[in-house]
Amino acid sequence: LKVRVVRSSPPSSQFKATFQESYQVYKRYQMVIHKDPPDKPTINQVRLVPVSFEDPQFKSSFSQSAALFAKYQMAIHKDAPSDCGENEFTRFLCDSPLEAENLPNGPDCGYGSFHQQYLLDGKIIAVGVVDVLPHCVSSVYLYYDPDYSFLSLGVYSALR
């Protein structure tokens, strides 16, 4: 048995070279030990989208995200449909006091508010609203499609 430590942040060349192999070990472990279904979201099925109506990905996914938010709020929190419209969604999870900022020594995504979208077969099944700040990442809110509650997406998001 050989054990080595590789730097993950910032990613070293060794980390990058062994990432896929390490990920496959992790995925198999999750399926065997924790009984995760094989279709649980993977790294390729999560995208970080800046919360900005100027961003094409945010604009193109807005209606789907807002509809998912309404479905979640009504099923999980028993909100009335009138409390879950696009205006309420925008006010609650899209309007942010944070200014987007890209600094040379900052993360590739920059600082600001983001929607971390979890996709399955091209469909958004969960959204984690996060603020990326200079010294931390703040999880603001998570909503998911109740039809996929068996995937424990809140736990998955927190660990991610």
TrEMBL record:
One Pfam family, short name: ATE_C
InterPro entries given in the database record: N-end_Aminoacyl_Trfase, N-end_Aminoacyl_Trfase_C
CC per GO annotation: cytoplasm
Gene Ontology terms, MF aspect: arginyl-tRNA--protein transferase activity
Occurrences of domain N-end rule aminoacyl transferase C-terminal (ranges): 65-160
Record's keyword terms, sorted: Transferase
Domain of life: Eukaryota
Name recorded for this polypeptide: ATE1 transferase
Organism listed in the record: Casuarius casuarius
